[in-house]
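Support request, please re-run this one:
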Amino acid sequence: MTAFAKFKMQGLLVLALVGLVTGVGWAGAVTLVKIDDLTEGPPSIAIFGGGILPTILSDSAGEFLHFTLPSFLTGPLNTAVYTDIFEDKVGGVLSDRLLLTYSANSSFVDVQFASDPATITLPAGAVNFLNVVENGNFQFAANFDIGETTIYPFQVRSDVADVPAPATLLLLGSGLAAVCSATWRRCRRAE
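Re-run finished. Output below.
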């Protein structure tokens, strides 16, 4: 075997190893979808890997985000999975909802996210994928996969309910105490 042939073989092996390590291959790659609802405005979406662009649908408005992503693999089953995101504890105040819907052999997956969960109507047979408590960080929310192949893992970042800090409560309490004390002294002098 010539030195040139050995060099080509080594190059192909290195390329295959890089593809395995990074997840980039000829069959496609996993594309991370991040939905950010940390701002007071409408939720935003960012997609990492695969050069995929979402198609934002016209009914997206306010705190409701509706978009589709291409599905390169097709599956024979209809699926609808949702994740509920709670403010304080699982089963407590429902804050956000993510719904993924896929129709059999479709070329796209339908994604809905809402800060007001009542705006999302769950289809018959929808399965609760996960329940999480919002913490202000990106959290795993769902996977869209066909068979054994994960195509889109979803992460969501939601606002954490505002909780007054102890210093704020101390300041408010001392202000109320001062007002009460001044009122008590004024009433006592008037007698």
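Residues 166-190 form the longest helix (25 residues). DSSP finds two helices and ten strands in the chain.
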